[in-house]
Structure formats: structure tokens, C-alpha cells
Design a protein that fits this description.
Blueprint lengths: L2 H20 L7 H6 L6 H13 L6 H11 L3 H23 L4 E2 L2 E6 H12 L3 E3 L10 E5 L3 E2 H12 L1 E4 L37 E5 L9 E3 L5 E4 L8 E3 L4 E9 L5 E15 L6 E2 L10 E7 L5 E7 L12 E7 L7 E23 L9 E3 L5 E9 L5 E10 L1 H8 L19 E7 L5 E2 L2 E9 L3 E10 L11 E22 L2
Length: 501
Amino acid sequence: MHPWRGRTLLVTLLALAPAAAAGPTPPAPIEAVVARLGSADFAERESAQAELLSRGAEPDALPALGRAAATSDDAEVRQRAAGLLDALTRHAEGARLLKPRAVALDFRSVPLDKAVAELRKITGANLQLDAARVTDPARLVSVTTAGVPTWEAVEQFRRAAGLVELFREDAPPAAGAENAVPSVRRSYYNGPTGPATTANLVPVLWADAGADAAVPLSADRGGPVRVTALPGRFAANRVIRGSGHVVIHLDVAVPADLHWEQTHEVRLSRAEDDTTRPLTVAHPLPAPAASDFNEMVFLGGRGFLNGNFYNGNAAPDRGNPRLVPVTLKTDDRLVRRLRVLEGVVVGTVSLHNQTVITVDDLAKSVGVAFAGPGETKLTVQSYATDAAGESALKVVVEGPNPYSNEVRMGLRRPGVSLWDEDGLGNSGLKKFRFTDADGDPLTPQVQGSSTSDDGSRQTMTMDLHFPPRVGGARAPVRLVVLGSRPVTLAVPFKLRDVPLP
């Protein structure tokens, strides 16, 4: 044996020892993974995308994706980074909005009506007593709970108070004058208060149980959104003989401050009958067309009239926005209940008072179009500052006609095509905030505005003037537009022992 062979082996082992002690290889920097989105190898691009999705919670992930989406020279990188940025942002918003919250109750001999009002404040749930079916709203109620999920606390209160929950197929009237939009400069008629149009406006309605015992309901109450399978005898549930279909309804109840605009679909991951045989989701049945139409009438240059015209004297039933039909395929076998029903409810919520457009340098942004939510757009048409320090700015905002847009998207209610005092009313742009170079707020004077509507797009042009200030000119430099931004949420649910019609 050569004398150097032992030394070589020893040196090799010593060289490997630190690596073995160091543990697993640390993950690659986020920037390096983002760069792999532009790899020539498709599998490598897909692998990088999957890794970025799994590492989206890291603090450097979103900034790196934002930079790549905006500045990368590679179109593939820009496209994939933009998609990942959108997906991760929505996931983070969804996790924040759907974060479970624990509630502890301690009601000791409290009048029912006052206890319900207090419970509404504590939980954020839109709770209401049916005045016609609660005989003694002043009766005393006692209920205490440890820290439990919000909707579980609501359920324990209901049981302790001897109440039953009422479910209705139609949309009850919205609380308050939801359609009333005050204006001091425009004359229009909004009509009477209509039915509730979003799930958060439909109250959880309670009544005395009376002689009838409450029907046990299968519900997932673990998160801020409650998903309940309505009883098999619910009027809208039905078996369609000969087609192998059964239609059930889920009730999606949300907090009052979560503006749940619409439920898009229910994705079932598991459905089994009592014998553990699986059921599948059938194609949804076509809904009957509503016997009404909405028309906007221009009143001699003085405003718009939102007119609803019905075939007959009764207003059409627009349905309860909390209810979601699910059509199951049973192959015409007799199924009385589901042992398991699991899936995801997908819906859209509107986040109000959000920053939807930012223009960082108004003077350098003339002619540039900035995209906003819901196919809206803002363009700085002109910008000028005179010798006296007065600044003039012309801004054009445009968006889809609310009525035609909502019909196209299949939303429940037609929009009211009226302009807000500070932007596009139903198109998502609400408030304009200007600041100078020091970040101090500026309030413009509106010298004039004009609007147009071709039936598809609405446009508003605003001439804004910023007077000079004492101590030097303070020209507007930055514009931030606040408005409503839609976010898609996926709410998982697990139900057991679900009765069928």
C-alpha cells in the first residue's frame, strides 16, 4: 500500500465531513427560481412554476415575481410571473379573509332581542329575529361557550334560545334603502328597495321552534363562511324521475361585512350514499328565464330613470343569493341520504376601499392608460402648469356599462347606470386622491365633466384645476384611485349525513 493512499482517504473524509454535518442543501434563491421560468426546457419551466407556488409565502417571492412580470426581457418569464403573482396574491387574500376566529359567549339571563343584537356584534353574522314568529322577544336567554368557531357559537346560541332557522327560496328585502344613492347634483329615481342581492345582505332568520322540533342540519361551521345542506324536504330540492338526477341546495352564509357578490360553482371532491357508492355531479339544469327586463331611459338631459317592467303584476323571483343548487347523478337508484359530501364553494367577494390604480408621475403619464378592476381604465389626457402655479389636469375614466356587463357575466341583478360624484359608480372606481411632491394631499376643483354611454362602454371626462398655494406652487404629482376589487375565494366544506329529497 502506498503511503499517500491513506492520507488521501483521510483528506477526502475530512472534506466530506463538513458537508454531511451541514444537513440538506438550502433552497435556491427566489430570483434564481424565477429565472428558470424562461428555461428552454418546458419541464424545467413547469418545475420552477410549481416551486414558486409552494414557496409563495416567503417574503421575497411576491417582490421578485412583481419585478419579473414588469421588467423581464423574456416574454415567457413575464407571462408566467404575472400569473403566479396574481394567483399568490389571491391565495394570500383568501387566507386572510377566511381565517377562522374563535368566539366565547357569556349571556346570563339576557333578553332575547338584546342578546341577538349583541351576538350580531360579536360574531359579525347577519342575525335577525322573525318578528311575526317570535312571540316573546324579551324572554331571558342564558348561554355560555368556550372559544369556538364563530358559526358554532351562533349555533349553540340558537339551540339554547329554543329557536329554529328559517330558509327561504326567494331573496328577502334588503335591510335599509340599499338602492338609495344620494346626490345633490343629479336628478334620478331609483325605485323602491328591492330584494337582497348579495349573500351578506340576506339575514340568518330565526323563529320560535314551537311544537315542531328543529330538523338536524348538516353544516360545516368551522370557518367564517358556513356551508349548510338544506333539509331534504326544502321546497326547491327535488328528484327528477327518469333523468337520474337529484337537486339539493347548499346554503352559503357569510359575515355581514364580507361582500359575497356571487357563488360561481360547487366543486365536489367526494359524495357517497349510505352504501358508500359514489355519486357524481351532473351538468346543471337550465334555469328558467326571468320574465322581466331592465331599461335605462334618458330623461330630457336631466338624468336617467331605471325602469323595471314585468309581464304581469308580480315582480319576478330573483332567488336567494345564499342558496346554491347542486345536481347529483343517482342513476335513478333510490338514495335517501349522503353519508359524505365534501367539496369547495367558489365565489367572488368585493373588497371595498382598495387601491386599484396608482399613477406615480402625472406629468410623465400623459397619454398612458392605466388598467383598473372590472375592465375599467384611466387615462391622463393632459397635464399643464402655468406661471402662476396653477395646474390643470384632464382625466378620462371608462368602464363597461354595468347593466350589459352584469348580464354578460350572469350576475343576479342589473346595475343602475348612474355616475357617482367622484368616479364610475358601479365600475369599481370610487375615490381619487392627489398628492404633491412632498406627499401632502391636494383637493382639486372640478371645472367641468362630461359623460357618454354607447350601451357597451361608459366614459367620463373630468377637467380638474389645482389652484396655487401660498408659499409656492404645489402641483399634483401622484394619483391614487380607490375602489372595489373582486377576489375569488374557494371555501372548502365537509358535510356528513346529508338528507336527500
